[in-house]
Design goal:
The protein is α+β, with helices and mostly antiparallel strands. The protein is built from 8 helices and 14 strands. Strands 4, 5, 6, 7, 8, 11, 12, 13 and 14 form a 9-stranded mixed beta sheet that branches. It has a 3-stranded antiparallel beta sheet with strand order 2-1-3, with helices on one face. Helix 3 packs across helix 4. The radius of gyration is 24 Å and the shape is globular.
């Protein structure tokens, strides 16, 4: 078996990210616990392959035990909405960047939570047993020679480290949120714009968001799953993709990245506005002059999409 070189180019990382679930050579669908091989062909082309196809690798960069994504990726053309006030819209245009908020700055105290505190004892008990078994059953070629006391001490240490890592993760995880819907939402206008008469919504697609961020493999984009924390827990690797059922109306698709070095409350990531902005809508409560102002601003920043009024003001008949 080839030694791993750990040479992970951006193209290789992007290939494995975009084809996470299957081998790019034979189409084999990975199952949890399978080995995926990342590396390069005889022509130095990046490859992401299964055990049966790993012979085609001239160089093996790294091997992984396959694990499914903790989120679901929407279809390419899925419509995504971002509701905001005028100042945030101008900031988007002037910076040509999308703002990612650090997760400990959100109002929702459950961002990144594993469960409800009253249920923590069951969580601790489960993972203590998991760590005990892992320590007592090391990989092939190793022998556990620790005493029961030493095993217990190590298991408790690992549990404590996992808890500390969860708390630290809130300060190193950054998120940008979108609302998934085929249609405009009156509720979202009210929830996510601080002053309705000057509110704006931009509409994009999953493909538009992903490509506007340069197909960056370090940015994960997917659907949030809403769970009942009274009955369930979020796993150690999916906590930032789980929210309470009370927020189900948000139908959130989030872009998420991890940055251990950033100490700011948020960070701006450059984006291609021509790829990102597919439609612009003006609040149903906006005065006529605001639409003209928005047109002037768009012209100044070379935005070619013409804003249109909210469809919620269409006049009915009886």
């Amino acid at each position: 078996m080839q030694e791993m070189t750990y040479r992970l180019t951006a193209d290789l990382r992007r290939l494995s990210s975009e084809n996470h679930d299957h081998c790019v050579s034979c189409g084999h669908l990975f199952k949890e616990g399978n080995t995926s091989h990342l590396g390069y062909s005889q022509n130095d082309e990046p490859l992401y392959v299964c055990d049966n196809c790993c012979h085609s690798l001239k160089e093996t960069a790294i091997r992984h035990y396959f694990s499914p994504r903790p989120y679901e990726i929407p279809a390419q053309e899925t419509k995504l909405w971002r509701y905001m006030d005028f100042t945030k819209y101008v900031s988007l245009l002037s910076s040509k960047s999308i703002y990612f908020t650090r997760t400990d700055c959100f109002d929702d105290l459950y961002e990144g939570a594993k469960g409800i505190k009253k249920n923590k004892e069951r969580w601790d008990s489960h993972y203590l047993e998991f760590f005990r078994r892992a320590i007592m059953n090391p990989p092939e070629g190793y022998v556990c020679e620790l005493s029961k006391e030493e095993i217990e001490k190590d298991a408790l240490r690992l549990l404590k480290e996992m808890e500390m890592g969860g708390k630290a993760g809130k300060k190193s995880t950054f998120v940008n949120c979108w609302h998934e819907s085929e249609h405009e939402s009156e509720a979202m206008w009210r929830l996510y714009s601080s002053f309705l008469p000057n509110a704006i919504a931009i509409r994009t697609s999953y493909k538009g968001l992903y490509e506007s961020l340069g197909r960056d493999p370090s940015i994960n984009i997917g659907r949030v799953k809403y769970i009942d924390f009274n009955q369930n827990y979020a796993g150690p690797n999916n906590a930032f993709w789980r929210k309470r059922k009370s927020f189900e109306h948000e139908k959130e698709v989030r872009a998420l990245l991890t940055d251990m070095k950033c100490n700011e409350k948020g960070k701006l990531l450059p984006c291609d506005l021509d790829l990102l902005i597919e439609d612009i809508f003006v609040s149903p409560y906006a005065p006529e002059w605001f639409l003209h102002l928005l047109n002037d601003i768009n012209e100044k920043f070379s935005i070619k999409i013409k804003p249109r009024r909210s469809e919620l003001i269409e006049e009915p008949f009886f």
